[in-house]
Specification:
The complex is a heterodimer of chains A (about 80) and B (about 550).
Chain A lengths: L19 H11 L5 H19 L2 H11 L8
Chain B lengths: L23 E8 L3 H12 L4 E4 L13 E3 H9 L3 H7 L1 E3 L1 E6 L2 E7 L11 E3 L2 H13 L4 E4 L3 E7 L4 E7 L2 E12 L6 H5 L5 E4 L4 E8 L8 E5 L8 E6 L4 E7 L6 H4 L2 H12 L5 E9 L2 E4 L4 E2 L2 E3 L5 E2 L8 H19 L11 H23 L4 H16 L45 E4 L2 E4 L8 E7 L7 H11 L5 E7 L11 E5 L4 H5 L7 E4 L5 E5 L4 H11 L3
Parallel strand pairs in B: 1-2, 1-11, 2-8, 5-14, 11-20, 24-25, 25-26
Antiparallel strand pairs in B: 3-7, 4-7, 5-6, 9-10, 10-11, 12-18, 13-16, 13-17, 14-15, 15-16, 18-21, 19-20, 22-23, 22-26, 24-27, 27-28
Chain lengths: ~80, ~550
């Protein structure tokens, strides 16, 4: 079953990429020869594009929470 | 000196060829008696093609070098009569574990299925492998292995190659219709042909230490650490080999001094930090290496073929060196035999390079990706890599992105000009251009395996569920296939024990567990055609002798 069908408003955290190695290479190739500042900029744009594609505030907030759960909140 | 192994010294023996007035012409001369040269020699000789193998040394590989032999390597070695010895001496493993810092983050299984003769992998020091192949060559009258014979020149002639050779008793020349250059990463034959292997050099150094220790300390599994506490900021790989020798592989970075790192006084503290003070070990062998991923543009020049590291090189992550090299010789030898015996046009040999460069590209791609993950090439790659690793502790989605080496599986030669494309739907992993699956069967009343019976000739697999499935037409077709100049020997794969009246050249195997049928998505009447190297080359839902002949002709380059 396609996970998307029954995962309305739930972030997919099981493997869902059909070809993980192809994806990972494309992601790192995207940043080849960029400065750190340029990479930050590219990453920001990438996140914004993907967020728009997902278009689900609840899902995006779950992802945001996981993305920084290992970093304690500032005092 | 090694504590666990004594290196044999093979005798130089003068050949009558050295006294010939004119260079003696041989059908095939192989340069290099490493693993690939010897698999090629056994393959050709056992199929009736006489071979001469020339090696500039007189012993087996010093140091361990290749360690992991994949299922396909073992399946091919079975066909060459060496598989059982390798498996008996080697350490069988299927499980790989990945660690991040102090934590085990996930495991993978190289062979999650049952009913295969061979496991996902065995580990064995290269010198044992070579020794077993030397022994096997010794049992073949038509394989002439000449030690201390150094090729110093090759010259392409109209329909052959002239080799100039130096020996302890002086120089001589040999002619060869075909030469297979298996003389390693720094192939001298390649250089003599004015050819290069081109690609990417990685700016990284790795220390490999083979240590002897108590086998109870670690199970026979592949363990890979990212950023372990005993080797911070780097990676470490642990593998068990035969004789309680363990391979430890430390990433050192590019700035490490190889001469310093090779010294036992520097290696031992690293190993101690890893194993802990309470584990006793002895250092058996160590080396510092760098690596490249590269290949030749074409694996053939005229009548010279390149195989193994001479043709292509990969990083060690993924065990794709020896495992892809044996697939080269597996691919080439039956073609040479067919052409030499006049059963296929010389154009069949044109398929070797495209089939094997396609495979090399897949191996290089996988090996490069693993290397890039293990040793990120820039800051942002490291950030992504570390994020993937840390997420993979708790989130399964990240685990498929973790790349500690994508271990060798045979590339499927889906683009091969020898394949006949499917015209009917099949739904299984095996496709034309892929090695046929293995599976438990019963043959002559005995438990056996399918792959043990395939190869060295074209084979058919015809799936039947009742004796009535074998019509007079089908039996006539099987008979005709079996008596061709290039016969097709068909195994009728019966769903259960049954009485079948089979023509000469056909035999029954019983698919007792139904695994062959399932793995090939077969139905009653399905027919598969396999090449002498066990690759599937065509399949059909209903046997049609004319279609089989057409597919076989295509696979023969006609």
């Amino acid at each position: 079953m396609d996970q998307r069908e029954n995962s309305m408003s739930t972030l997919i955290i099981d493997p869902n990429l059909p070809s993980p190695d192809d994806f990972y290479q494309a992601l790192t190739d995207l940043h080849r020869d960029l400065s750190d500042e340029q990479s930050m900029d590219v990453n920001a744009r990438l996140i914004l594009l993907l967020s728009n594609h997902i278009g689900d505030q609840a899902v995006l907030e779950q992802a945001m929470a996981i993305a920084r759960e290992h970093i304690p909140a500032a005092e | 000196m090694f504590k666990t192994y004594t290196f044999p010294e093979f005798d130089y023996v003068r050949s009558a060829d050295q006294d010939a007035v004119q260079p003696v012409l041989h059908p095939v001369v192989i340069v290099g008696a490493g693993p690939m040269g010897m698999t090629a020699a056994v393959d050709l000789a056992q199929q009736g093609v006489p071979v001469v193998i020339l090696d500039d040394n007189n012993t087996v590989s010093v140091g361990s070098r290749a360690v992991c032999y994949a299922k396909r390597f073992l399946d091919i070695s079975d066909r060459l009569g060496v598989g059982q010895r390798i498996v008996d001496k080697g350490v069988t493993w299927n499980i790989g574990k990945v660690f991040l810092e102090e934590d085990h983050i996930y495991s993978f299984n190289m062979l999650p299925e049952e009913h295969h003769r061979r496991p996902g992998f065995i580990n064995l020091q290269q010198y044992y492998l070579e020794e077993y192949y030397v022994d096997r060559i010794g049992t073949l009258d038509n394989a002439d292995l000449r030690w201390k014979n150094k090729v110093v020149n090759v010259e392409q002639q109209d329909d052959s190659v002239l080799l100039s050779i130096e020996t302890p008793e002086g120089a001589y020349q040999l002619g060869a219709r075909y030469v297979i250059a298996c003389d390693g990463a720094n192939s001298k034959v390649r250089a003599m042909c004015g050819l290069e292997s081109k690609g990417q050099i990685f700016h990284d150094r790795f220390l490999i230490a083979d240590v002897i220790m108590d086998p109870k300390k670690f199970p026979p599994e592949r363990w890979f650490w990212f950023n372990p506490p005993f080797h911070e900021g780097q990676s470490t790989l642990l593998h068990r080999q035969a004789d309680n020798v363990w391979r430890i592989d430390f990433d050192l970075g590019w700035d490490a001094d190889p001469e310093e790192e090779k010294k036992p006084e520097n290696i031992i503290p690293r190993v101690k930090a890893f194993l802990g003070d309470d584990v006793e070990f002895e250092l058996e062998w160590a080396s510092v290496y760098t690596f490249t991923c590269r290949r030749m543009d074409e694996f053939r020049q005229g009548n010279i073929f390149f195989a193994g590291d001479a043709a292509h090189q990969v990083s060690p992550f993924g065990a794709r060196g020896a495992n892809s090299g044996i697939e080269d010789t597996d691919n080439l030898c039956w073609k040479l035999k067919m052409v030499l015996e006049g059963n296929a046009p010389a154009s069949l040999l044109d398929s070797y390079s495209p089939e094997r460069t396609f495979a090399a590209d897949e191996n290089i791609l996988n090996s490069t990706r693993s290397t890039d993950f293990i040793t990120p090439k820039n800051h942002v790659s490291r950030v992504f890599r570390d994020a993937v690793l840390n997420l993979s502790r708790n989130y399964t989605f990240a685990r498929p992105l973790v790349n500690s080496g994508r271990l060798s599986v045979p590339p499927f030669l889906t683009e091969s000009p020898l394949n006949t494309a499917d015209t009917e739907a099949f739904n299984c992993k095996v496709v034309p251009g892929a090695p046929c699956t293995d599976g438990s069967i019963v043959y002559n009343g005995e438990d056996d395996f399918l792959l043990s019976n395939l190869g060295n000739q074209f084979n058919g697999l015809l799936f039947v569920e009742s004796h009535t499935d074998l019509t007079a037409d089908i039996l006539q077709g099987l008979t005709e296939l079996a008596v061709q100049d290039v016969p097709v020997k068909t195994f009728v794969v019966a769903s259960h024990e049954m009485e079948l009246n089979l023509p000469e050249g056909s035999e029954m195997v019983v698919d007792k567990y139904g695994v062959v049928k399932e793995r090939l998505d077969a139905q009653r009447g399905t027919f598969y055609l396999t090449r002498p190297d066990q690759l599937v080359t065509a399949r059909m839902r209903h046997f049609d002798k004319d279609q089989v002949v057409a597919a076989q002709n295509k696979a023969l380059g006609k």
